[in-house]
From TrEMBL, chains A, B:
SUPFAM superfamilies: Chorismate lyase-like, Winged helix' DNA-binding domain
Domain HTH gntR-type: 14-82
Organism of origin: Sphingomonas echinoides
InterPro entries: Bact_HTH_transcr_reg (IPR050679), Chorismate_lyase_/UTRA_dom_sf (IPR028978), Tscrpt_reg_HTH_GntR (IPR000524), UTRA (IPR011663), WH-like_DNA-bd_sf (IPR036388), WH_DNA-bd_sf (IPR036390)
Keyword tags: DNA-binding, Transcription, Transcription regulation
One Pfam family matching this protein: UTRA
PROSITE patterns tied to this protein: HTH_GNTR
Annotated protein name in UniProt: UTRA domain-containing protein
Amino acid sequence: MTERMQNAADAGPGPHYLALRDHLAGEIAQGALAVGARLPSERQLQLGSGAARGTVREALFQLEAEGLIYRRDRSGWYVSPPPVVYDPTRWAGFMAYVAEQGRVPTTETLGKQSVAASAADAAVFGCAIGTPLFALDRRRAIDGRPVLVERILVDPVIAPDLLDEGLDGSLTAVLTGRYGVRVVRNHVEMRPCALIKDVARALGVASGTPGLLVVRRSFDAGDRIIEYDHEYWRHDAIRVLVEVRTRD
Amino acid sequence: MTERMQNAADAGPGPHYLALRDHLAGEIAQGALAVGARLPSERQLQLGSGAARGTVREALFQLEAEGLIYRRDRSGWYVSPPPVVYDPTRWAGFMAYVAEQGRVPTTETLGKQSVAASAADAAVFGCAIGTPLFALDRRRAIDGRPVLVERILVDPVIAPDLLDEGLDGSLTAVLTGRYGVRVVRNHVEMRPCALIKDVARALGVASGTPGLLVVRRSFDAGDRIIEYDHEYWRHDAIRVLVEVRTRD
DNA sequence: GAGTGGTCTAGACCACCTT
DNA sequence: AGGTGGTCTAGACCACTCA
């Protein structure tokens, strides 16, 4: 379907950068450029295509936006691995569902600290601005490639010694096992965004790379917020899937 | 949070295009550039900033990727209206949930025809390749601004005279009211994509504009597929929200 | 240190939208 | 017809990665 709707009318000549895009996309589809393979350098593509470097880069940006390739800052362009499927209705934690799909998940804690609640945080936690909250910054990778960075906020009242725990696994498991918390409701919000500044740096991507922002809020039976999580994903690493039974 | 994580370390000078981005983002935040307002032309921004036009365009692309502005092909750059919230678990149809949010939805039928099932379609419908299917192409707008184009496939066996119906409203309503179909399960898949070719043209955007692809499949109680829908959204027009009660 | 992508310049012509 | 964004060229220097 994507192919049918978006590749119709391939006939016309169109811009040069789209011709180069089609050429590279073809090599990826045919396997001449395998998953994870590095593309020729921009200057080599320039020679091969006779275009200016800016035009070559436009073709590469197009493929990046489509999720076919990605870049490692100042290292090169590479063919993207297939995305993992994320189902917010069957939330099992990153480590679990990535492993289930035959991939190797890893988590790295970038920092843990106590921060003062911003106005927005205070609204979510129902506390006063400036109230201390635990903030956990993590980077997660699939098959060694960083795919997201996240910041999780937790109310210290719920997990007083959280920052002393091992936090490279499932945070939900820690909250459940160690603090007896029971999550009964998840609220998940998603939107395309651009990865910039800190986030881009942490993921090793160029600022402005397209991404997906996933905001998760977990609540217990008393509707207390348990986790407030912002995940910045590389947009080509994730596919969201929701399965819903219509209520009668 | 977005602000906290992404705007930290604003101190450094950084690239010129990010400085211009910050300037324009500030004007939008402060309301100096109102929602729907048109930005100065690229050449005017060039004069104001002393940068080359390519640099100005980089700043604009950045803001576009963040969803703050959008372009009308060869007309200009405009401040994006706020997104509508889409909740696949409370699926009520585009016309309904857009109106609920105080916006004005419209639908336009671009074409309706019988097409032969592709290999992918055949797999979804459980039919042979080449089997005739009804295809409905529509464009939908919010407050007059086109936000998505879609192609819906329906099995003629389920709705034999579908193409003779009025199809500018809710298709699900037609299938339910006229053909007695009952949808009990929805399968929704989402991923960032690039809007290219036909889709870009139909939305009046430049090829390569970032978008969101939503694929919906509806099933009845007998697990027969009722609707198979591909929606290509402008990425700044939609925000996905899922609310899930954890099963016990 | 060689090579890579990241940023930037200063032009140019075109297709298309707007008036 | 004039202005807009879309495409393209042919350079340049820089920050960074990698061997």
